[in-house]
Design goal:
single chain, alpha/beta, nine-stranded mixed sheet, 15 strands
Length: 347
């Protein structure tokens, strides 16, 4: 990578847009206003929009750099293409969702942490709800974790229990994964591990990326000194069968590609049983579209796993809690109530 000598430490804040003209008008002004120009540039990568997005950018935000792609490449490949296009100019990229609002100097704490912790591959700010600013936002809260079965949860959000932010998670913490809603990455490492997996298209691709970065020996951190506000559900609502399909399929793919061969078989059998319970719940509530989405997810996983030929030497789920037992049986609904997370005392 032939990065310009004067680009060391600079940040590209990239917003991937697809038919999001209304989001650009609503949220881009705050990003432009509060992103420090001394260390960063704001870039919108348009993923083949058919609405007025490009016209909005040209006429209302002429100071914002544009990357224009001819078609919708999905969240994962869209960001890969954008980062490859700018990697020679910037050391870091923030992958910022188009429905994120920022204030104050949200970026400097993240930048300072990356600059002073060279072993760090990625960081996230504290993610708060735009609708209820006193609460964490579901998609990442104050940093993400995985349980022994590969289920994701967050410091500040476990399943549907979302905590109020009272400063209880304001300490920086090494985490398993950082939210893709506002994810700052080291560009060189991002590209060296393959970037976001384009086969995922969307959903859980950032968890998979962070897993691969950790397998490469680097750390992921949550840095709550920075915070942003996320609308959430900007692309697909939680109840959408397409979202159910992508989440179930991609979680299985993530386990298959990132667990050692001597572990993955048993873990996937266990997940099939647990996913059957989820399927039965949808059937019991007459939600046949989401039930069908789970069946399709498993069918497509069986087909797609053949493209992966990996055998990591380390099981990063070893020593993890079982979040289903913690939450539903022991009644531990908050992260701070969990006894141990990944071999570390929760905080």
């Amino acid at each position: 990578m032939n990065r310009r000598p004067d680009s060391r430490g600079r940040v590209a804040v990239i917003i991937l847009n697809w038919n999001g003209a209304r989001f650009l008008r609503e949220y881009l002004p705050s990003v432009v206003e509060h992103t420090p120009k001394a260390i960063a540039d704001v870039i919108v990568a348009d993923n083949g929009s058919a609405d007025e997005s490009l016209e909005v950018l040209r006429t209302e935000f002429p100071e914002v750099r544009r990357l224009e792609f001819k078609e919708n490449n999905g969240f994962a490949e869209g960001y890969n293409m954008a980062i490859r296009a700018i990697a020679d100019e910037y050391r870091y990229t923030v992958l910022l969702n188009s429905d994120v609002k920022v204030d104050n100097d949200w970026l400097t704490p993240l930048h300072d942490f990356m600059e002073t912790h060279p072993e760090t591959a990625a960081v996230q700010p504290k993610l708060l709800s735009l609708i209820e600013p006193s609460k964490f936002e579901y998609a990442g809260a104050a940093g993400g974790f995985l349980d022994s079965n590969g289920y994701p949860f967050c410091r500040g959000r476990i399943f549907d229990t979302v905590e109020e932010d009272r400063g209880q998670y304001d300490t920086p913490m090494r985490v398993d994964w950082a939210t893709g809603a506002a994810l700052m990455v080291d560009n060189e490492l991002y590209l060296s591990v393959g970037g976001l997996d384009k086969e995922f298209f969307a959903h859980m691709e950032e968890i998979d990326l962070c897993w691969r970065m950790r397998l490469a020996g680097r750390d992921i951190w949550a840095v709550p000194a920075a915070h942003v506000y996320h609308l959430g559900g900007g692309s697909l609502p939680a109840s959408n069968p397409r979202k159910t399909y992508l989440n179930f399929r991609n979680n299985l793919l993530m386990l298959y590609k990132n667990l050692p061969q001597d572990v993955r078989g048993g873990r996937l059998v266990r997940r099939r049983l647990l996913d059957t319970v989820a399927w039965a719940k949808f059937v019991a509530t007459l939600d046949f579209k989401n039930a069908s989405a789970i069946i399709k997810a498993h069918r497509d996983f069986a087909r797609m796993r053949k493209i992966y030929n990996t055998n990591p030497g380390t099981n990063l789920l070893k020593g993890r809690c079982n979040i289903l037992t913690e939450y539903f049986i022991k009644g531990r609904r908050k992260f701070s109530n969990l006894s141990v997370v990944g071999g570390r005392k929760s905080q």
